[in-house]
């Protein structure tokens, strides 16, 4: 009796074509994910003219409201994925299953086994594309590094699964046929297959959250080294790999060279000050340029300080407000506006002076704090800026910023930028109009900051006092402190000024946001949150609940992760 014929669901008999189309499909899958973000960025080119009251002119369309609220749904259990992530994972798994499905014969035929090798190689190469800090996807599809790295993780996991499935099926069949030694001796290139799968598996183990966070430097250099080893091994394993591996390898090389030029060949001098108690270290950096564009609010850099670690690069959020010319001037050319809208840059002065804050929790930050004793000058190298906020706060009359602990650093940059821009618009409106009713109304800005100890407020006493004086409402929640309320005066800023609103205990962010909404009805809101994952989940739920037919709330979120 003849053995059953192996048939694949798609591209039967042509695994190379399946690999090519799978490659295209994965990239398109990410492109679809970027459409809402790209649309929001391009909308900044032609901002809607809002009335001075920032009130909505009419109710929200019910269908639009339903879709909007659905985007902020999340799994009620760990890992609490958002709707966007769930849809991506479902689409990715379905797409992979379609290309992998077939009538595989475990004992009689290995005709379908190569398909999984092609899928593993495709996932590996696409994963590299989404691991670049200066990826072309950023400039084409408005996908910054902190977003593309999520896709990198999923595609990397897919590469490992398909690599082990590819090799495991072959090995199972050869064991049953007792031809394992024969196969590896007769076909020497086969040995590079298990080696590749082992390297990929080791990369996944080293990338697990607890390992990655505790041994960040070891993880990073191991990850890069093993990635290069995997590319060499897969090219030794098969002649078909080069057209797949060469393009991402070239892009990775360009990315590394550009970062080398911007970092190692452009050293800077900075001054650092360690706060009393040794909790954080604040550094002032003056940098000549960021390749022709000024930094934007909420962005971050990677910094290397040889005195603290010769080869160690650490991420740090920019605390300082964006340059005064952000966003791009209305007199800028259309190409300048287009680049700024997509990339989050601006047309301001290319010279940059800004501040960074490190929390002293690791070896690098502790060594940095020790080296900065006395405020002495230190040599450093900076790579960046990176990142772009989904929500452009200047387009909203109500801005709500929520932070947990050291997550307040990017929030503080956004807070100062929004207040500065609002004040500038107030001045421009006053200068261009003599009628009181035609003057631009100030934005409503609310800051909610949760800290474990009230002494942490001293990190930003100056900025918080200035924000309060410019009309922002500052609420501080002290989650683990036995201090009394008389400490509120100590953090209030100048003598005689009203204290910040300080409450002891955990904040109910849903109640806080609903209180803000009730105080400012019929106003669309931009919400930014940076903090632990639990805080991001609570804020997402609050944004969904606060969106109704009278006002729409939009969210940009950043959770603590490396």
Summarize the structure in words.
The protein is of the alpha/beta class and 562 residues long. It has 3 domains: 15-44 and 83-261, no CATH class; 266-388, Translation factors (Elongation Factor Tu (Ef-tu), domain 3); 390-562, 3-Layer(aba) Sandwich (Rossmann fold). It is built from 17 helices and 12 strands. The chain has helices at 15-43, 62-70, 83-100, 113-129, 136-141, 145-177, 180-186, 192-206, 209-214, 216-237, 242-263, 334-343, 363-371, 408-432, 461-469, 509-519, 533-546, and strands at residues 268-274, 280-287, 300-304, 314-317, 352-359, 377-386, 398-404, 444-451, 473-478, 501-504, 525-531, 553-559. The protein starts with 14 loop residues before the first helix and ends with a strand. The relative contact order is 0.10. Mean pLDDT is 79; it is low at 326-339, 346-350, 433-440 and 486-494. GO terms for molecular function: ferric-chelate reductase activity; superoxide-generating NAD(P)H oxidase activity. This is FAD-binding FR-type domain-containing protein. It is found in: Membrane.
